[in-house]
Amino acid sequence: MVVLALVLLAGTFAYLWWMRRTTSLTRLCRWREDRAAGDWVCASCGARTCPEEGGAPTVCLRNSSS
Question: What SS3 class is residue 40?
Fold first, then answer.
């Protein structure tokens, strides 16, 4: 039982570390897809982007938007 708890704890920390490394989004990033324009817009700051891989943006553009 102790081994299972340690494995679950290690798995949880590994998942959190992986999520932290693959995204720079903050709580203020609220990306919404604008299909009419073909890009993504942040509902919080208004930044617009079109990611290359076709998925949702993974980078916060709050400081780079005008």
Answer: strand
